[in-house]
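Blackboard transcription, Thursday session:
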Amino acid sequence: MAPPPTSVLHASLTLPPPTITHASGHYLHPSPGPPILDASGGAAVSCIGHSHPRIHTAISAQLDSCEYAFAPHFSTPAYERLASFLCSSTNGAMKKVFVTGSGAEAVEAAVKMARQYFVEKGEGGTRTRFIARQRSYHGNTLGALDVSGHAARRAIYEPLLSGKTSHVSPCYPYREKRVAETDEAYVDRLAQELDDEFHRVGADTVCAVILETMAGLTLGAVAPLQGYLAKMKEVCERHGALFVLDEVFAGMGRTGYLHAWQAEGVTPDLMTVAKGLGGGYVPIGALMVSPKVVEVLGRGSGAFVHFQTYHGHPVACAAAYEVQQVIKDEGLVENCRVMGEYLGERLRARLGGHPNVGDIRGRGLAWALELVKDKTTKEPFPVAQKVAPTIHAAGLQKFEIAVLPGGGVVDGVNGDLIVLAPAYNVTREDVDLIVQRTAKAIEHVLGGAPTAKI
Ligand SMILES: Cc1ncc(COP(=O)(O)O)c(C=O)c1O
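(Written on the board underneath:)
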């Protein structure tokens, strides 16, 4: 059947995706077709499920009071309330909030804030560089892509990127911890690599090190090893650079902590959040700024040299604030922890013995299955085989489930992932269904019999 005509510039020019006419709870309703179980919340976004009535009410009330005010000239109670909630959720680690329209915009704001911090300190002449990690993802706008380390996403835009960011190894034990190396020795090696990179580029040339607290969609739900973030921050501080944590994916409850760094006992100088902030009800992200950075700006120019027409949008702020109240009132951060453990357990029981499931990893309600051609050598499938995209398509077309396919985990190009990031309010029954349907989609594409019944 020929696809319907469309004026939308979809991801594929020839194959438009299914049209969702409505969504509720954990289900997306396409037309035509049966309901689809949303096991990834889109790109790890829909954290309280779809069509929550409290968010409807909050958005309507905000539209009734003030739909828009230009943030550089006016504040609104909605912006003030969200910012105050976010700061108090960090126990004083963060002092100011700049609300954006997306994760990439929050990262752009973080990059600009880091640069401005050093200009205000009188180090603007030298501090122009950033250090990030290979195979990281911080967004697709040019500034955010500049710090991102995902080769395939950067490739054709490389000539437009600044070349001011260098990338060190991520913390990725499945492939990069050496045989017989202890976790501690591996973490020390990564910290040494960062230190070496500071020396290579000139220790006083770096504005900031930027890392995902828990590597999300491109490396596939890799939680940091114990002590890793603390050691990276130590190196960063030794060279006077800022330590920036990107929690666009991992933040606002997904890992079983409201802020993923709270599990590590490491506070950033700047941090970003987005996906779980608005839960998909509105496009929103935020940069949060520590007292140390605010103080330098306060003693200097007293103003952040950055704004956008829609930053601090009151409807987005009101919706996000209500999403956060739902998370609090319904105990959803705790549910992420409990259901996350259950999801990991069920995935291991159902798919741990599959010959092509090389690794099953995650924390909270962020999980990834790394698919390999050979489990012993960890050889990936060639990218041309499109293993993860085919499993995603099979999930949608045959098993009524939406999972998130990923690629490039090995070298930025090859290496397939299936990421699961369901809403924080899933039940054990929802988790059972997610595991069952995901396993069926994988077995449909790769073969392999179930190792246990659920
Ligand atoms: C860690 C991280 N940072 C930034 C982004 C970019 O966010 P957005 O797609 O909202 O621009 C993403 C998106 O997946 C992400 O996972």
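Lecturer's comment: Residues 43, 102-104, 107, 137-139, 212, 216-217, 246, 248-249, 274, 285 surround pyridoxal-5'-phosphate (CB under 6 Å).
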